[in-house]
């Protein structure tokens, strides 16, 4: 308990000296232990890694020590990535703009402090490249919806979907309707993805087979679209289904950006020029708590 409190105090002091944008907590840290004026994000808690420490004087001791060290390294790397992903998500959604964040990681066996520079995040750099084609506001709106679908699904079930953004004429010419287009005949305000009042219906239509087609300025042109693309010579991670393959392929053949949500695991991916440029596994939004100074 003394160690934990010392770690927390040190992290808060460090955040103040570095003029950090926020604190990100991963693990069992109590709110009452955090006294700061900075926004605090409580990351989705990962399953705890249990390591059995064995006392041995046999010839296997050295090998066992290496095994334990490897597990500790994996755990630290996992929690570091967790902090980085939370920071990237909040940046992409407009909560954190620039600067550094300080992470406090508490596991069963160890405590650590992480300093993460948002400007050096490869996730954020990849997203800025996408924003050269699609406005940040549209990207953030689609990502917000995608993260929500990934985290909560729909009607108690996990679902997958995809959004194809930009180069609408080319995308529409390389696709066909699997079902009647639910957005046909509706006015632009009712198809505007920047309007939060439309988000609930978008999440409802995400249960349909096919993809959403969204213009550069955020107008939904269609849902339930099937992409007529050739995946020949396309390099994509093994194990991903047709939704990801077709999403990657359409970005190879057009200048559109694709955002996909995996039905299994709720992973959000972004494709550009036929390649995966962004993959966020920790899709559940952090819980933000503003604490009094």
UniProtKB/TrEMBL annotation:
Keywords: ATP-binding, Manganese, Nucleotide-binding, Nucleotidyltransferase, Transferase. Its EC number is 2.7.7.85. GO terms for molecular function: adenylate cyclase activity; ATP binding; diadenylate cyclase activity; manganese ion binding. It is an enzyme of class 2 (transferase). It catalyses: 2 ATP = 3',3'-c-di-AMP + 2 diphosphate. Residues 124-282 form the DAC domain. PANTHER family: DIADENYLATE CYCLASE. Diadenylate cyclase that catalyzes the condensation of 2 ATP molecules into cyclic di-AMP (c-di-AMP). c-di-AMP is a second messenger for intracellular signal transduction involved in the control of important regulatory processes such as osmoregulation. Belongs to the adenylate cyclase family. DacZ subfamily. This is Diadenylate cyclase. The gene is dacZ.
């Amino acid at each position: 308990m003394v160690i934990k409190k010392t770690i927390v105090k040190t992290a808060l002091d460090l955040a103040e000296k570095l003029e950090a944008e926020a604190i990100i907590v991963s693990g069992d840290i109590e709110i009452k232990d955090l006294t700061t004026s900075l926004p605090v994000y409580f990351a989705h808690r990962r399953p705890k890694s249990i390591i059995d420490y064995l006392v041995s004087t046999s010839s296997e001791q050295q090998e066992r020590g290496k095994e334990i060290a490897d597990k500790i390294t994996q755990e630290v790397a996992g929690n570091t990535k967790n902090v980085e992903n939370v920071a990237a998500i909040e940046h992409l959604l407009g909560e954190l703009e620039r600067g550094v964040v300080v992470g406090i990681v508490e596991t069963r066996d160890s405590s650590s402090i992480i300093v993460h520079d948002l400007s050096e995040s490869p996730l954020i750099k990849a997203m800025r490249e996408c924003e050269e084609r699609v406005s940040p506001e549209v990207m953030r709106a689609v990502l917000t919806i995608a993260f929500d679908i990934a985290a909560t699904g729909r009607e108690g079930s996990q679902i997958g979907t995809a959004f194809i953004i930009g180069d609408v004429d080319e995308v529409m010419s390389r696709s066909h309707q699997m079902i009647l287009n639910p957005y046909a005949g509706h006015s632009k305000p009712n198809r505007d993805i920047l309007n939060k009042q439309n988000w609930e219906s978008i999440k409802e239509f995400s249960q349909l087979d096919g993809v959403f087609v969204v213009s550069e300025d955020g107008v939904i042109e269609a849902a339930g679209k099937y992409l007529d693309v050739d995946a020949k010579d396309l390099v994509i991670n093994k194990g991903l289904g047709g939704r990801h393959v077709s999403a990657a392929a359409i970005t190879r053949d057009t200048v559109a950006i694709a955002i996909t949500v995996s039905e299994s695991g709720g992973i959000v991916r972004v494709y550009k020029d036929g390649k995966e440029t962004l993959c966020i596994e920790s899709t559940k939004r952090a819980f933000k708590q503003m604490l009094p100074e």
